[in-house]
């Protein structure tokens, strides 16, 4: 019998099978200390915090209120202390203002390209930069100052967007840098038409920077020389252009419209003789025919004669008319028939939910995971 017992395996391990719950906890306590648990949790939290920080830093352009901050940054160029040292004149009316941007991961679509919808927020900022730079004197005149709260009792003055269109030609890859070349294309009795070209960075360099001559330093010249062949080829074949947008804007003081000709004149972009000598604001309501009391040769609201100033204005008018032939796609004559295409009466295909909010997210995941038998529209 003794021989049989001595042959049993694991004889020395049998006493350990009699451990109770407290003994097990004591044994585990020798190996797992509270400090180890806290260290593990801290490492786990730190990793997630690091990922969140990297996500925010890589998408600063898309965090909440960043769009508003970008607009405020553009507003500052209307302040006297932030205006260019070179006075703005009629020669600058049709010149573009260049802003630089990039496509963060939050703006990338399923095709790993910059999403089409994200172009329009860039347009808002680019237009604001152009308007606050060219029309800073006019903004100051109608607002009664450049301060955010100037105490003026006049109705709120600002720029309203009436229409915008954008055509997409080439893709922008994640974090690719691009430039927005924004300029005044033309205007009529009521509307300004502003064109913006999305251009690959450093593919095209202007001959000079008329309002900021210091930017035309050796760096810009070297960039132009090094890419001269690319500049020529890309400009001729439009390979540098990624997208083109056209915006129709109007200056408003309350519900009244300020004509483009008057805004140009008060901003110092037209000779005083081109309009009535008195620079009092001539405003008209939305439904009134947009006009100025002075005589004119076209719908621009600008008077024309044979003086030297008028010869300069003739150059402006020729460029305005050339641009107007391009801007007709956003003119009222083209938009009104499109508006009439709204089929308010008749049959419809149905209704779908957009998928936003907690309900939308839960229902979408439930449908994809086949967790519900009934279809959620």
Automatic annotation (TrEMBL):
The record's listing under Gene3D superfamilies reads: Hotdog Thioesterase (3.10.129.10)
Keyword check for S-adenosyl-L-methionine, yes or no: no
Q: Which UniProt keywords apply?
A: Membrane, Transmembrane, Transmembrane helix
Q: Where is the composition biased (Low complexity)?
A: 290-300
Locate the region Disordered: 277-306
> What InterPro entries does the database record attribute to this sequence?
HotDog_dom_sf (IPR029069), THEM6_lcsJ_thioesterase (IPR051490)
Transmembrane intervals? 40-60
Q: Which domain of life is it from?
A: Eukaryota
The UniProt family comment states: Belongs to the lcsJ thioesterase family.
Protein name in the entry: Capsule polysaccharide biosynthesis protein
Q: Which organism is it from?
A: Lachnellula occidentalis
- Where is the organism placed in the taxonomic lineage, from the top? Eukaryota, Fungi, Dikarya, Ascomycota, Pezizomycotina
Gene that codes for this?
Answer: YBR096W_0
């Amino acid at each position: 019998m003794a021989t049989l017992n001595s042959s049993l395996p694991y004889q020395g391990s049998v006493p350990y099978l009699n451990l109770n719950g407290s003994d097990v906890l004591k044994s585990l306590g020798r190996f797992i200390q509270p400090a180890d648990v806290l260290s593990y949790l801290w490492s786990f939290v730190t990793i997630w915090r690091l990922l969140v920080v990297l996500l925010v830093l890589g998408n600063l352009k898309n965090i909440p209120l960043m769009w508003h901050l970008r607009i405020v940054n553009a507003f500052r160029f209307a302040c006297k202390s932030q205006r260019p040292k070179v006075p703005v004149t009629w020669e600058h009316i049709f010149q573009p203002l260049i802003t630089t941007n990039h496509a963060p991961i939050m703006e990338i679509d399923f095709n790993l390209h910059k999403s089409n919808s994200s172009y329009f927020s860039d347009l808002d900022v680019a237009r604001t930069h152009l308007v606050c730079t060219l029309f800073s004197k006019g903004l100051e005149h109608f607002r009664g100052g450049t301060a955010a709260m100037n105490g003026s009792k006049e109705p709120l003055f600002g720029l309203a967007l009436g229409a915008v269109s954008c055509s997409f030609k080439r893709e922008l890859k994640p974090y690719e840098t691009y430039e927005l070349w924004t300029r005044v294309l033309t205007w009529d009795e009521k509307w300004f038409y502003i064109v913006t070209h999305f251009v690959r960075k450093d593919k095209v360099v202007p001959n000079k920077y008329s309002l900021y001559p210091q930017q035309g330093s050796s760096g810009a010249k070297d960039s132009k020389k090094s890419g001269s062949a690319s500049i020529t080829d890309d400009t001729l074949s439009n390979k540098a252009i990624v997208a083109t947008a056209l915006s129709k804007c109007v200056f408003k003081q309350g519900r009244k419209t300020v004509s483009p000709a008057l805004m140009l004149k008060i901003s110092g972009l037209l000779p005083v003789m081109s309009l009535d000598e008195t620079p009092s604001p001539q405003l008209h309501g939305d439904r009134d025919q947009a006009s100025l009391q002075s005589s004119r040769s076209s719908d621009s609201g600008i008077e024309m004669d044979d003086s030297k100033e008028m010869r300069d204005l003739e150059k402006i008018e020729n460029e305005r008319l050339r641009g107007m032939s391009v801007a007709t796609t956003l003119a009222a004559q083209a938009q009104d028939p499109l508006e009439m295409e709204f089929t308010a009466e008749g049959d419809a295909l149905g209704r779908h939910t957009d998928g936003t909010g907690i309900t939308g997210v839960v229902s979408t995941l439930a449908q994809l995971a086949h967790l519900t038998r009934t279809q959620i529209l």
